[in-house]
């Protein structure tokens, strides 16, 4: 597959032209930053990406609850460098670490669950690096009904399968929601093979490769893939909203039928009481 080329398991639907004129509704996406980032720094790094798809989506950024271990042994913790969990015994995190712990994971899961409930509604999740790993885990937990979060789609940039032992069972079932996986062919922190391995856990997959390293790519080369993906998600959202409204609508004939049933029931009850 060529760099910057997206592949999809299903054909895209075009949003009707009348919807393109004025779209009042947007899908809402909860965003999870990478290791040693925070919500605000991640938001700033996604400036171009958010401009590309701002017509179709709204993004909310939150902070992980744990401070990352200092880079230097005698260094101090920095309040703006955060972590979702730690997978090494020294209280640090490394994506390539295997068979380690997952210190602080449950606390972070509760933070995301709370944000999903109190700052929602949301339709999707987006994550970068450790945040993308967390998104993948949440999708697996949702599939098994082990979390209150119910994503309808996800974007995973520089994602990977968690090497923590307690997470292994979460990957046993395939995820069916639409996902977009973005990774760099020259990423040295999360090698492309790790991101490719993560895609195997999903069935409805689009892949966007870029020639760069460990960052969320958002140049003109990736722009159309992002737009296409969010057009599809918005189309699905609007269709679901329309179906819900239709199912909740009571038409005049149905109202007459209900009135007749109630009237008939009342007469029957009256006859019985006599």
UniProtKB/TrEMBL annotation:
One example GO MF annotation: hydrolase activity
Similarity field: Belongs to the LovG family.
Q: Work out whether the entry's keyword set contains Hydrolase.
A: yes
Question: Sorted alphabetically, which keywords does the UniProt record give?
Answer: Hydrolase
> Which Gene Ontology terms of cellular component type are present?
cytoplasm; nucleus
Record SUPFAM superfamilies: alpha/beta-Hydrolases
Where are the stretches annotated Disordered?
250-274
Q: Name one GO biological process term.
A: response to retinoic acid
Give the superkingdom in one word.
Eukaryota
- Which PANTHER family does its entry note? ESTERASE OVCA2 (PTHR48070)
- Name recorded for this polypeptide: Serine hydrolase domain-containing protein
Q: Name one Pfam family in it.
A: FSH1
Provide ranges: composition bias, Low complexity.
Answer: 263-274
Ranges for domain Serine hydrolase come to 25-225
Asked if the Swiss-Prot or TrEMBL record annotates the protein with the keyword Hydrolase, the reply is: yes
């Amino acid at each position: 597959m060529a760099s910057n080329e997206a592949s999809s398991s299903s054909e895209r639907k075009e949003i009707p032209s009348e919807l393109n004129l004025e779209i009042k509704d947007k899908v809402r996406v909860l965003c999870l930053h990478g290791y040693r980032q925070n919500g605000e720094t991640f938001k700033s790094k996604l400036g171009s990406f958010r401009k590309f798809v701002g017509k179709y989506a709204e993004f909310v950024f939150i902070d992980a609850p744990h401070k990352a271990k200092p880079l230097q042994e005698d260094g101090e913790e920095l309040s703006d460098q955060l972590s979702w969990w730690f997978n090494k015994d020294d209280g640090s995190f490394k994506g390539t670490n295997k068979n380690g712990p997952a210190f602080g994971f449950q606390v972070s899961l509760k933070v995301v669950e709370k944000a999903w409930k109190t700052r929602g509604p949301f339709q999707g999740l987006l994550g970068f690096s450790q945040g993308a790993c967390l998104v993948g885990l949440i999708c697996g937990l949702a599939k098994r009904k082990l979390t209150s979060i119910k994503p309808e789609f996800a974007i995973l940039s520089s994602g990977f399968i968690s090497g923590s032992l307690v997470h292994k069972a979460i990957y046993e079932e395939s995820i069916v929601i639409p996902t977009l996986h973005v990774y760099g062919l020259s990423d040295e922190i999360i090698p492309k093979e790790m991101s490719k391995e993560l895609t195997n856990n999903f069935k409805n997959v689009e892949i966007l490769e870029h020639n760069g390293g460990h960052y969320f790519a958002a140049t003109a080369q990736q722009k159309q893939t992002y737009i296409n993906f969010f057009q599809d998600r918005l189309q699905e959202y609007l269709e679901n909203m329309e179906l819900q409204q239709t199912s909740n609508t009571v038409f005049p004939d149905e109202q007459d039928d209900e009135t007749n049933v109630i009237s008939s029931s009342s007469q029957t009850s009256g006859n019985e009481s006599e």
